[in-house]
Amino acid sequence: MSDIIQPRVLKGFRDFLPQAEMEREALLEALTETFRRFGFVPIDTPVLEYAEILLGKAGGETEKQVYRFKDNGERDVAMRFDLTVPFARFMAEHAGELYLPFRRYHMAKVWRGENTQRGRYREFMQCDFDIVGVDTASADFDIMATIAQAMSALGVPGASIHVNHRGVFNRFLAKAGISGKSVEALRVVDKLAKIGAEETRRQLAELAGDTAADEVLEFIKGGDGFEATLERMTRIAGGSNPDSDRLAELFGMATACGLSGMLTLSPSITRGLDYYTGVVFETFLDEIPEIGSVCSGGRYNDLASLYTRQRLPGVGASVGIDRLIAAFEALGRSGKRGGYTRVLVANSDPTLCAEYQAAASALRAEGIACEVYPEAKKLVQQYAYAELKGAAFALIRGPEEKGRGAWLLRNLSERANAEYASVDAVIAVLQGA
Amino acid sequence: MSDIIQPRVLKGFRDFLPQAEMEREALLEALTETFRRFGFVPIDTPVLEYAEILLGKAGGETEKQVYRFKDNGERDVAMRFDLTVPFARFMAEHAGELYLPFRRYHMAKVWRGENTQRGRYREFMQCDFDIVGVDTASADFDIMATIAQAMSALGVPGASIHVNHRGVFNRFLAKAGISGKSVEALRVVDKLAKIGAEETRRQLAELAGDTAADEVLEFIKGGDGFEATLERMTRIAGGSNPDSDRLAELFGMATACGLSGMLTLSPSITRGLDYYTGVVFETFLDEIPEIGSVCSGGRYNDLASLYTRQRLPGVGASVGIDRLIAAFEALGRSGKRGGYTRVLVANSDPTLCAEYQAAASALRAEGIACEVYPEAKKLVQQYAYAELKGAAFALIRGPEEKGRGAWLLRNLSERANAEYASVDAVIAVLQGA
Lengths: 433, 433
Prior knowledge:
The structure is a homodimer.
Chain A: H1 18-37, E1 41-42, E2 48-50, H2 51-55, H3 60-65, E3 68-70, E4 76-79, H4 84-93, E5 102-111, E6 123-132, H5 137-153, E7 159-165, H6 166-175, H7 182-190, H8 192-208, H9 210-220, H10 226-236, H11 242-256, E8 263-265, E9 279-285, E10 295-300, E11 314-319, H12 321-330, E12 343-345, H13 353-365, E13 370-372, H14 379-388, E14 393-396, H15 399-403, E15 407-411, E16 416-420, H16 423-432
Parallel strand pairs in A: 1-5, 7-8, 12-13, 12-14
Antiparallel strand pairs in A: 2-4, 3-4, 5-6, 6-11, 7-9, 9-10, 10-11, 14-15, 15-16
Helix pairs in contact in A: 1-5, 5-11, 7-8, 8-9, 10-11
C-alpha cells in the first residue's frame, strides 16, 4: 500500500483529548448557565467573513496576524480574529430584527497567527457577553455581577474584580494639563503592574514632565478601600463629576448584592485598548493573581460605527477560558474525569449481549450513564477500561449468574461485588448510592 | 466621518439570531446529554490543518469545494470539510494516549464551498459519534440505540432507523456473478428512492444485464418485516453467513431493548460512500420522511489507514442538525422562545436600582433567571421588552410600593398584579408557579 501521511497538527494549533475537552466543556457549560440566568441570549456568526468587514478597523498588528485569503470565488475573505467585530457587524445588519437593550453571549473560536513562542495559540476560544443599547450604571453592574456569578459557577474559591473609569482618569489628565497625551499616558499607566512604579514614572516623566508624572502616580495609587480611593481620585481629578458618581452607584449596587467585598477600585487599570470609554474591569483569582486577568472588559460608547450610523453604546466582558484552564491546571484543580460513564456493563458471555443491552437500556432510562463493553474479554481488562472511563461500578452477569437469575454489581474502587435478583434492584441501589 | 461599510455576510454563510441559536443550542444539548449517557466522550480538533492531511483521501469534488490557502508561513492549509478525516488523523496521532474501544462525539462546524443554489450552506455543523477499535454486533447496536435515544431526547414523536449490511449485499452480488461491478451496482441501488424502480432497473441492466438486474431488484425488495426480509435476503444471497447473523443479532438486541419497532431492514440502503463495509443505517422522521435521513452512518473496517498502520475498525453515525432544524420548522415545531429570562425586574425609579439588583440577585440565587431593566422607561415599554425575552413575570417596585414596603409581581400573560411584602415571598410564589 501507499506510504503513510505523518499525522500532525499545525504549529500553534492543538487537539483536545477527552479529559481536556471534558474540562473545557464543563467550564463552558457553567458560563452558559450563568449567562442565561442573567438574561443573555446566544447568537452565532460565520467564521469566515469579507476581509473588508473584519479588518475595517484593524491596524497593523491585527492585520498581520489574520488568516486572510482569496476563496474559490476570488472573494477577499478572512477568519475572524475576535468576536467583537463580527458582533458589531451583526448588530448593524440585524438592527431591524433585534431589540434594545440587547444582551448577548457568544462563545466560539477565533484565529490569530500569533508568535507561538510566547506560549500563545493560533486557535483559541473567546467567551464574550455584552449589553448593548444603554449607558447606565445598572448595565455596568450587570456585567460585574455576571462575572462574580461566573467565578462562583466555575468553582473559583475567591476572585477580585478590579474596576476603574476611563472618564475619571481623563478628567484628571485634563486637570493636570496633559490631556493631549491621554492615550499615551493611559498606555504607560496600563503597564504599571508589568513594568513597576519606577519605570512607569520614568516613562511618564519623559512624556509629560516630572510634576505631571508625580501627579499621575499619586492619582493611580490604590489600596485604601473602594470608597476612600474613590474620594481621593475624585478630589485629585477636580471634584464631583458624573463618572465618579457612576463608580459610586456601582459600589452601591455591589453592596446591596453582597458583592462589595469582591470589588477593588484600581485607578491604574485602564485597559490598553482605546476602545473603552467608561468603566473598565479586570478579574483576578485570589489563589493565583499572577496569571493575570481571567475576565476583562468595559464600557464603549459606540459598538458599530463602522457599519451603521445608529449609535450603539454598550458594556461587556470576555472570559479568558484558556487562562482559566491554565490556572486550574497550575492549582491542581483540573477535572481529571475520564468519562461520563457511571456503570460499565461487563461482557462475560457474548451470547448474553442482548441482556446486557437491555440492562443498559433500563439504567439509561433512569438517567444513569452506562455502556456495554462491546466484546467478551477478560474481566480484568474490562475493569481497567472502566477505570479509564471513570466508571464507579461494573454490572456483571456470566453464565453462572444467569443460571441463578442474578446480577453482580461491582464497586470498582472497593473491588467488592454484591448480588441482586434483578436489574431493577441494581437501579434502586445505584439511585441510593 | 468616514463612509460606512455595508454589513453583510458571505454567500452561503449565515448569522444565527437568538431564537435560531437558542433552538440549535437546545438540540445540541439534547444530543450531548444522549452521547454522555451512552459513554461517549468529547474531543476537539483544529479547524485548520495541513491540506495534505485533510485531502489525502479526497477526490475531485471534495478537493474543489475545500477552503484551501497558504498561511502567513507559506504552509498549504485547509479548513476541515468534515469531522471524519480529522478524527482519523487524531486517532493515529494520539494512539499511545488513548484506549480502545474509543467512543467519541464531536459536534463542530465544517466548511465546503458548495453550490449554494441547491439550498446548501458553505458553513454548517456536523454532529458525529463513533466507536472505534471493535467489530461486534454490540458496538453496532450501541450506535443504533444512541440514535433512538437521540431522537427521543430531541422530542421527535416517531422515527424509523433503516438498516442494512453491505456484506450481505456483496455476497448476493458474488452469487449473481456481478461482484466485479459491486461498487457501481451499489451506487445505482443507493439511488433507488431518488430515481425510482424503473430507472434503477434500466441502469442495472446496462451495467450487468437483464437477469442480474431482475435479481438485484428482487433482492432489494423490502417491506416484509425485519425477520422475513432478512430470511429472504439471506436465501437469495446464498444462505446462512456471518453478515446475516450480524443483522439477526442486532435485531435480537433491539427486541430486548424494546426498539425493534423502530428498526426496518432496508436491503436497498447501501450509502453511496465506498467507506462503509458492514452495517449501514439511515434515520427517517415518521412525520416528514421526505426530508431525508436525519442521522446516517455505518461500519467501516479501517478508520485511519492513511495515517497509521494500526487497523482501526469502527462504527458511527452523524446527526444532520441542519436538516432536523428544517424538519422542525416545516412541522411548525420550532422553539419560539425569545430568551431564558423568567422575570424582568422593572425599573420604575432609577434611585431604587440597588434594590432592583439585590432582588434580582436573590432570585438568581434560587436559580430563577432574571434581569433588571437597565434604565427607567415607561412600564409598558418594559413589558413589551419582557415579552420579547419570553419572560412570564415582571417584578415591580416604584416609590409608592417602596413607601408601603411592597413588591408587585405581574403575571405578564394574565396582565394581573399581586402584592407581596418581601422578595422572599415573591420567590416562594415563583417556586410554586
